[in-house]
UniProtKB/TrEMBL annotation:
Keyword Transport applies: no
Transmembrane annotation, as ranges: 6-24, 36-56, 76-96, 108-129
Organism: Roseisalinus antarcticus
Source superkingdom: Bacteria
InterPro entries membership: ABA4-like (IPR025461)
Record keywords: Membrane, Transmembrane, Transmembrane helix
Name of the protein described by the UniProt record: DUF4281 domain-containing protein
Amino acid sequence: MPDTSFSIASLAAMVGWTILIFAPRRWPLLNGVPRWAIPLALSVLYSGLVLANFSASGGGYGSIAEVRQLFASDQVLVAGWAHCLAFDLMIGAIMAERMDRAGVQRPWQAPVLCAILMFGPLGLLLAVLTEAGLRPVTRIIPQGAVT
């Protein structure tokens, strides 16, 4: 069961990332697949696995040893994987929309979105910096100052 859940979750996420990176964004229904449908489906998987297995794992969040013990269970490990896949995909969809609005062309977005897929927070940082780098930089010069 954990191997099957892992494979299905991974495949669903890859479908979402493929849509996000390669499909046109002019269709709102298609945009909803990576932004809402797949992350919510992964959230259902996560919730079921956590509710059924969390207390049985014997781990917790109080120390690294407890976290290690928590993730020693394959079911909880798959839940953690689904958690990462869901949130990374949703963040990717949000940042893709923001980069679209900022005028970042799709060929420049693709590596940033791949960084979000592979490295989560690092990719988010790159997306924010990419978006911020396109904002016009304005200097505020006090009135009457000599320039």
